[in-house]
Amino acid sequence: MKRIILLATVVVIAISGWGQTNYYSQTKTFEEDGYTYQCNATPWGFVELYNKNNKLKGKFPAYRSTGKTYIEPEDGFHPVMEHDAKKWEKGEDIVRNAFTEQQKSACKGGRRLYITCYINSDTGKIDEVCFEFFKTSGYVGIPISVYRQIELGLKKEIQYGITDLGKQLNFIFFWFDIEFH
After folding, report:
1. Strands (E), the chain
2. pLDDT at residue number 76
3. Residue 166 Cα to chain centre, angstroms
4. E strands, 45-146, where?
5. How many angstroms separate the CA atoms of 65 and 60, rounded?
6. What is the DSSP letter of 114?
7. Rounded to 5 degrees, what angle do the CA atoms 155, 161, 166 make?
8. At residue 34, what are phi and psi to the nearest 5 degrees?
9. Sheet (strand 172-178) strand order
10. pLDDT value, residue 102
11. What is the distance, to the nearest Å, from the Cα of residue 177 to the centroid of all Cα atoms in its chain?
């Protein structure tokens, strides 16, 4: 009897595992409804997901006048954006509201969604967005349309104040993460 129960349990677990969708198990390009996203499944367990039109991914902010890469000075923190907790909260709300309750539940478990924003240093608006998450997280079951909704929401709704130092750079790099509890 114990063997039958064990076998039944193993079968149920296997079937439920097969039923989970993983959109991002391998490197590929998604073309949907007039937009194209690139998915890079890295060997170290991360998935990078971003709009194929992004031009800044993999680049670092640089001074406009010299082209020299910006590195935070050792003498302390020098802000490139004005601190605005309400805008940061708004960004997090945009991300959280893009997920259904079922999707949020699937993403629980201590894994985070990392969102990198490339901010226009003239306007303070977000020009590009890149997502990263673990291959073993619930985020692999979230359709590309949800990430697109987040990208568009952040670009439309968020505008940061840029400091004088920030205005000297060609763009500003900013990231935040989300975890569902």
Report:
1. 28-32, 35-41, 46-51, 113-119, 126-134, 172-178
2. 77
3. 22
4. 46-51, 113-119, 126-134
5. 15
6. E
7. 100
8. 85, 5
9. 28-32, 35-41, 46-51, 126-134, 113-119, 172-178
10. 96
11. 8
